[in-house]
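batch_manifest entry 22 of 60
target: TonB-dependent receptor
source organism: Mesohalobacter halotolerans
requested by: lab member K.T.
priority: normal
notes from requester: please return tokens only, no post-processing; we will run our own comparison against the previous entry in this batch. if the run fails, retry once and flag.
--- input ---
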Amino acid sequence: MKDIKFCVYVLVLLIPVLSIAQNQIPLVDYLNRIENEKSVRFNYLQQDVKTLEITTTNTNQALQNIFNQISTQLPISFEWIDNTNIVVKRLSQFYCLKVLSENLNQALSNVYVESHENIIKTYQNGTVFFTNKPKSKTLKLFKDGYAVEEIEVESLQPNDCKIVKLTRQINLDEIQLIGYLTKGLNLNSDLSISLNPKEFEILAGLTQPDVLQTMQYVPGIVSLDERISNINVRGGTHDQNLFLWNGARLYQTGHFYGMISALNPSIAHQVNIYKNGSSAFYTEGLSSVVDISSAAKPLDQSEFELFANFLETAGKADIALSDHSQLRVAGRYAFSDIFDTPTFENYYDKIFQNTEISALSTNENLRLSSDVDLQYYDANLQFQTAFNDNTTWQINAMAISNELLFVEENINTQDQKDNYLTQESYVVSTQLDKNLSENVSLSSLAYLSYYKLEGENASVLNNQLLNQTNEVLDYGLKLRSDFELSEQYKFSLGYQFNEIGIRNDNIVNIPEVEIRQKSVLQTHAGIVEFKASNFDHKLKTTLGLRANYYDKFSEFKFEPHLNMSFAIIPSFDVVLMAEQKHQVTAQVIDLQNDFFGIEKRRWVLANENETPIQRLRQVEIGQVFNKSSWLLTANLFYKNVERITSASQNFQNQLEFLQLSGDYQTYGAEFLVQKQLQNFRLWLNYTYNDSEYEFDEFSPSVFPNNFETSHHAETGLSYTTTKVKLSLSGRFFTGRPTTPIDQDMPISNPDTNPDINFLDPNSDHITEYSQVNFTGSYTFLWSKFKAEIGLAILNLFNTNNTTNQFFRLSNDILEVERIENQGLEFTPNAFLKINF
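--- output ---
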């Protein structure tokens, strides 16, 4: 039955393709059609024309126009013998241009070639022929969405097609501002954000164009505890962000257990970030979508990069195998096993505070017998090639690993036990793209994503051994077909299949307890999306619908998507966005000390009981003003997420051990103002949001969201030249909610069943957060390579920030302890990058 469903979906995709893509026909057939319609007769040698094919043109025009269009595509000429007889000859000498896209080496149609004599255009094969050498000195090539190319006529050789590659250029109709916060970060007309790391200039506190760090400068996005693995968007948890790497989902985003991005910044080629109004081809990601592609443009020659800072060393090699194929190898490795730096020590203190690692330093009976061994690495491999002018293929592989090893020793007996915590991911994807015609394209992608978190906690006091595992296997197939109906209208169809399996194990030897849980879910999805551009491209509409079928529940879920923008005047746009999404995965916390209290979240899969399918409904209206180097944006939004579980929200109060299902809703406003003045860029953004939970089974049922930041502001100033880059920024947000205790009676039932006597959940806030960051660099330029040195500083003024606060009962005496997690101290990080 499943195979039948799959075949039906594929046939639905192919029917429009088969009906549209038949416009490249043999020249002989086309000449026969002209003979019948125009009452003329062609005379030719079969060997001259039998192998030639042509893109058909409208025959309801003058014969000479038809002949000119044919002669542009093929090396042939037409000679009238009389009023009805025409001789078709193959040219013995001709001049030719073949126009390709630089990124994909695909033939480009509708490229206009301008000379002094006339303007002609390429058809489906991307080729133009000249009977005689053009008389002008240069030829200019134009195509919408590509940079203008100019070539010397003297470079044309008889009977040889000169290859010309056009560079893709962002369509100004699709982009609102190039240089949003910094060069390389762009604001699109649909209010999505695009990051091009290769063009990236500088942001304060960063040594590289890291996407997970960069997105935190965007209004509405924040990490309340400074961890990459805990990014909150409009009140959502980190697991509600969908991270895609070359089409495959990532279940691990951080090294150093959340302090450093697991994605090598040097390999990302294009990154798109959506908070709302995303394409129907995305699902999950209730809070945001971060789509990362590492596919690069074809290389003229091999390129290499070396990088090092106070935490790691990295290298990348882009190897040009041929004109159509290239190989990329990249990797990063932490050198903490060689020596520790001040940067490493600050990160270490931050991540391990109030965990079992830090508890060993204060325990009277236990200690660490050796230094903690913390290591991480990642590796990337990519191969891409063009089989022909219209077909490209790529395969990508990535490995991510974190490993923590330490030995626990009993001070009294000198007994020792090894403990470890490992976190690793392996991702593979392959993609085949094919242009069937200038208006029809197909794309197919298959992927596999594997994630594993495993910890072994061995106690030297009682010989108890606890082994915990969280494992995810996600694989799938994505098919897509795009149809350009006209310059104003585009239509897309798609089918996606994926299967997710998640395993959670808890095994204890004393007493012998073994808990193993495994769940699997298959999802089929059909997608349809329509894009329109009307009123001279002033009104742009993207309307999509996705239908998800979850076989385990025998249930359909529908997801409409809308993104509409209207240019009231050339410098002022209004944007309306709305979407509904569903999510079947979540990260939950069973116990705060799981996995040593370091990475305590486990991936789980939706079921019919305690973990339902979550649903997002979101609507937003925004405006963009862009004129005279000024940019002003303002957004109002309402977001509602239903069927969340309390275990996914990291409660550390009276809800910590409860299994509740509820909702949260967030409404707010986001603003940004930016001014570009020659080499200076100044910007300020501000976010207000009000986010509340609603758990009907708890009293009070409504209270503030754990990840609410009522007021959040950031400002930055940068100065950039070819060699010098400087950036300074400041960040401020109100303290996150916390639950106070009854100071008069902090412990309830102290004699029988002692517990902390909490007041209403999240009825107080911790202190405000503020931080100033800086980055400066200088670039040395030589003929064959360049080198950049720089310094990045987090928390320039060493501000004392509390990132979390909670209460717990002391193990030794019956009293309540207030625990505070602190932010990073003054943290410098020098870096060196060499390209050659």
